[in-house]
Amino acid sequence: METDLGYADLNIPVARTSDAGLRSLIKRALELGYQTVALNTVVDQENLMTKKKKQKAGELNKLSEFPEPTIVELNPEDYPHLHSRGLKPKILTRLTIMISDNDFLIHYNKSEIVKNYDLLAIIPKTAQCLISLLKSSFRFDILSYTPDLIYSGVKWQRKLYNECIEKFIHFELMYVPAIVDREDRRKTIGLSHSYQSIGKSKKIFFSSSATKPIELRSPSDVSNLAFIFGMNENQGKDAVKKHCLDIYKAALGRKLGVYRVRVEKIQGEPVEESGSDSDGMETD
Fold this sequence. Notes:
Number of helices: 12
């Protein structure tokens, strides 16, 4: 298990970026000082219609299964700064599902592909959708919102916020929409201050959602956004490092399931066998 992911950007979209563009985004992120990035695949529940709904609506089923995770292989020449320090970048895969109700669980529970993703994020379109999901046995790692859903989504209350925290869910704030568009900036700042007033900005992390290398910012610049988002300096630093590691650990626990003891071999030292203790034992 990784104990240090370094600075992380857990939202590099793959659907809107070509292969060459995606590689350029990853290389730029590593140049800026990130050690971990997550390649984010977004799926809308509306594209996972059941056969019954398809026949009833007369629409084409765009996705019969969740897409495979995007894998990108890098050479040491692609990350010279990390390579000079004897480090390697960690490229995670993330699945984000935009949901309107719990019907998506039919596809999710039957899918083997979703098990190949490292992180799982949910974008609920309504408050009732999120409440119903929290009452189920379904577990996920990240709760996110696109700017157009911030005001039409969940009206936050302290009880609901704390319930998410108890289930090891982290809240995502994307900074690129706040840079690119004035209206999106207003919505993102409003959401962040809502998190601060309701939950003291607990379990918040920052990500980019960048589609162009020029949109990426260094970890220090991103952590300084905490002052705009109603957070303090330490919370800003945790939002680009510590909480990202917490998300990764929570995801490992979610995939592993319920357990009491985990045994992991960390060294290859031979185990000495001692049979002399049983030689002198007397039996009745």
